[in-house]
Specification:
The strands form two sheets. A four-stranded mixed beta sheet has the order 3-4-6-5. It has a two-stranded parallel ribbon with strand order 1-2. It is 63% helix and 6% strand. The chain is mainly alpha-helical. The chain is globular, with a radius of gyration of 25 Å. It folds into two domains: 349 residues, no CATH class; 108 residues, no CATH class. The longest helix is centred in the N-terminal third of the chain and has 37 residues.
Length: 497
């Protein structure tokens, strides 16, 4: 250990919580408080757990569909198979509570890592806390109990590494990236964002005529690309991830790929940062570097095009804002600058992670004992007001209908989870697999358009499970040959007579 590191260790305030610990604790509490909303945000979690359970039971990779009667036997590319396995293991250990705790830890860890990492970029403590909090608030629009949170965590680490390399050109900083890519490519399909970021760094360095650094980045780009091929599906993992983005109908059909709705209050932090970065770019006396501008421009456009990119934009924008704010304060606000320096002397030495960990454990214990009240006072379970929980329980008691089902799109993952994959669904949230033709057919049947009755016959549908307000639900209530055997405020069930 170097003398500098020894001195830093000796001077550390071990029992004094750092700003990253404070942010971790607050974010962990906040995400756990709203966890029922995250867990019930869509049904994809059920599919991830179900596939992971299959992988655990068979000890084999799944290359063809065995979960739907519409696509049974068709080629399947599990671009999140590692996360499926991870979620299944966590669920086996602690059920949906475990999924909630893992989600809260990953989300909180993302912004704690980001806040701590800004220290290496010479961002002082108060500004680090401001940047980390801003990124966290912007990212709340896409908090889910799904593998996307892993991408956000990896992305936070990635941009910190890339900007640290930009500052000092120490190639050793980039060495872990190919290893990271092996994990990323097997955990979530958005690993392709890493290749994009490395490419943008190279373009920025090229524009600044730092040719030696460009060569290094190119080597890392090639190494990272090759590393991402270490997965059960090889190059198809990359082509599949890029290819889905070209399928306009499916992208438009999937809500999270649509542009953000600025009428929703959860988007307000994002809107505020959009306006703030525009003002900073316009009024700032400090000229931004090419890499920062390229990152910011790319993710501004990506987030405006697709709301699921907002958390990634939030990290990039917060880093950009922190750099600009540092430069502005150092150049023109001596009084404020002096106070920030005083606070930073303590912030640089603070640690206190034992408090953050103890706080998280305390919340987990409280939840296990039932003394932690979340926003819905529901606990970590599927909400009967959103999913056919009561309907399935009743049907299992009275006798589950036999044959092929036509189900609500958003319920597909829940049904796979509830039946442990033993009942085949018509469709679920994995639109990249089911494709445009089947998704269009689903919409046609659901909306009672055209020859919807013939399509039900063609797919040999024996029972239908839908919300009562769907057009098909209303049509079947008066259709010959169908009988309503269950109804509540959430679900109606029809079977063929």
């Amino acid at each position: 250990m170097s003398p500098t590191r020894i001195e830093e260790k000796n001077n550390r305030l071990w029992w004094f919580p750092s700003v990253e610990v404070l942010l971790f604790s607050f974010t962990f509490f906040l995400s756990l408080f709203v966890m029922p909303i995250l867990l019930n945000g869509d049904g994809d979690l059920g599919r991830h757990i179900t596939i992971g359970n299959i992988l655990l039971k068979t000890h084999q990779m799944l290359h063809s569909d065995i979960l739907s009667h519409t696509m049974y036997g068709k080629e399947l590319i599990l671009h999140e198979w590692g996360s499926d396995l991870l979620f299944a293991l966590i669920h086996h250990w602690a059920g949906l509570n475990g999924i909630a705790w893992f989600t809260a830890s990953t989300i909180a860890g993302t912004y704690a890592l980001f806040t701590a990492g800004l220290k290496k970029l010479n961002i002082r403590t108060p500004i680090r806390l401001l940047a980390g909090t801003t990124a966290m608030l912007v990212g709340t629009n896409h908090w889910h109990t799904r593998p996307h949170i892993i991408t956000t965590f990896f992305f936070a680490y990635l941009i910190l590494v890339l900007f640290e390399y930009y500052q000092n050109e120490d190639y050793k900083i980039l060495i872990p990236l190919p290893i990271l890519m092996i994990f990323w490519a097997n955990l979530h399909g958005a690993f392709i964002t890493a290749l994009v970021q490395i490419g943008l760094l190279g373009i920025g360095l090229l524009l600044e005529k730092r040719f030696s650094a460009v060569k290094t980045v190119f080597i890392i780009f090639v190494a990272a690309t090759l590393a991402s091929l270490i997965n059960p599906f090889g190059v198809r993992m990359i082509t599949h991830s890029f290819g889905y983005l070209q399928l306009k109908y499916l992208v438009d059909f999937t809500n999270e790929y649509n542009s953000p709705n600025f009428h929703h209050s959860i988007i307000y932090p994002y809107l505020g940062v959009l306006l703030l970065t525009t003002i900073m770019g316009w009024r700032s006396k400090t000229k931004a570097n090419w890499v920062s501008l390229l990152f910011l421009f790319f993710w501004t456009g990506s987030s405006l095009y697709s709301a699921r990119n907002i958390p990634l934009y939030g990290l990039v924008a917060a880093l950009f804002g922190a750099q600009q704010l540092e430069a502005e304060l150092k150049n023109g606000f001596p009084a404020i600058n002096q106070r920030i320096n005083a606070f930073d002397k303590i912030g640089q030495r603070a640690w206190g992670w034992m408090w953050g960990i103890a706080f998280a454990i305390a919340l987990i214990v409280m939840q296990m004992r039932g003394s932690f009240n979340d926003v819905l006072q529901l606990g970590n379970q599927y909400n009967p007001a959103q999913y056919p929980v009561a309907a399935i329980a009743t049907l299992e008691k009275d006798g589950l209908p036999q044959g092929n089902i036509f189900n609500e799109f958003g319920w597909g993952g829940y049904l796979l989870y509830r039946f442990d994959g033993k009942e085949l669904v018509f469709i679920d949230g994995q639109t990249d697999f089911y494709g445009e033709d089947l998704t269009r057919t689903y919409e046609q049947i659901l909306n009672g358009e055209g020859d919807w009755q013939t399509l039900l016959d063609d797919y040999q549908i024996d029972w239908v499970l839908l919300p009562p307000n769907r057009t098909l639900s209303k049509l079947l209530a008066y259709a010959d040959g169908w009988e309503n055997i269950y109804a509540d405020e959430t679900t109606v069930v029809f079977v063929r007579k």
